[in-house]
Write a structure and sequence with these properties.
heterodimer; A: two-stranded antiparallel sheet; flat; B: mainly alpha; Four Helix Bundle (Hemerythrin (Met), subunit A); 79% helix
């Protein structure tokens, strides 16, 4: 049975190629930005742009904007769970002392020290 | 058309059952990948030495794979558009292009990992590499699963059958793309 999707029949499709082109421009910026080695620029170009790209894909390719509102709320609830996990666990991972407790710093092995440089480290 | 034994729409949900199911799958995937990425971020912030390890990943390979996934997502959404227009053959062809993108991604990943492992960076080297292989590996498994499902759906779509499934695999594929959009800066750019 030929059964086409229904909800886009009442909506115009965005220009997908244009959206894709914008995503590629953002990709180039996210690669080049951190090369300036300025922390704020790295944060904005790498992670800020990642959020913009994810939003564009969710909105234009997954059509989250024309789904019933509860679908977006469902996705948002799961993201809140992620932040809850982070805030609950991060202190134990990121802090080394607190009230009546300390945590020993662990020096991790550096496999790169015993082997030839690889990847971007080759350029440093 | 024969009567179907199962409901394909839910009046309360307002969307077809299949699409609702995919959104639930994605909701659970957000928790899986979100938990993994949140754990990575807190460990990365707590261990400055990880930036030294992260310097050993290859940004250009990661960027190329990002390009491949973004392009495959374009093909997936164009396949969906073709399905809406009732053009099953075109939808199937575009799904095959999408699957080719997924296969390219997996092959590049295999090459990248083989080089890294040959340089001594393995799952057990330290916790950075444990996270690296776990996160990228779990994502790669999703890519491979997506390619297999896409090929099955493309075969049906080519005969103008079950065209609504083209959108369903597309939504899943775009989510896999979004996960990589966040993995890329975390594993390849933040050094």
């Amino acid at each position: 049975m030929a059964q086409a999707a229904t909800h886009e029949e009442h909506h115009d499709h965005p220009n997908y190629v244009r959206v894709w082109a914008i995503l590629l421009v953002l990709l180039v910026i996210s690669v080049l930005g951190p090369m300036l080695e300025i922390q704020v620029v790295t944060l904005i170009t790498a992670f800020g742009i990642a959020i913009v790209k994810a939003y564009m894909v969710a909105k234009n390719f997954m059509h989250l904007n024309i789904e019933p509102r509860y679908v977006a709320y469902l996705m948002g609830t799961m993201l809140i769970f992620m932040f809850l996990l982070f805030t609950a666990v991060a202190p134990d991972v990121m802090k080394y002392e607190g009230v009546n407790w300390t945590k020993e710093k662990v020096v991790q092995p550096d496999p790169g020290a015993a082997h030839a440089a690889h990847g971007d480290a080759e350029h440093h | 058309m024969s009567a179907r034994p199962i409901a394909t729409t839910r009046e309360m949900a307002g969307i077809p059952t299949g699409r609702l199911a995919v959104w639930w799958v994605i909701a659970s995937e957000i928790v899986i990948f979100g938990g993994l990425l949140a754990s990575y971020i807190m460990h990365r912030l707590a261990n400055d030495a990880w930036s030294v390890q992260a310097a050993n990943t290859n940004t250009w390979i990661g960027a190329f794979n990002t390009f491949v996934l973004l392009t495959s997502s374009l093909f997936a959404v164009l396949a969906h558009k073709a399905a809406v227009e009732g053009n099953g053959k075109k939808a199937a062809r575009l799904l095959l292009y999408t699957a080719a993108g997924g296969t390219t991604f997996a092959l590049v990943k295999a090459y990248e990992w083989s080089v890294e492992i040959s340089h001594g960076y393995t799952l057990a080297s330290n916790t950075f590499w444990s996270f690296y292989y776990t996160a990228a590996g779990l994502h790669a498994l999703h890519v491979i699963a997506g390619v297999v499902i896409m090929l099955i759906i493309a075969r049906e779509a080519a005969r103008n059958l079950e065209l609504h499934r083209v959108e369903l695999i597309g939504i899943y594929w775009h989510f896999v793309d979004i996960v990589w959009i966040f993995l890329f800066p975390l594993l390849y750019i933040a050094k």
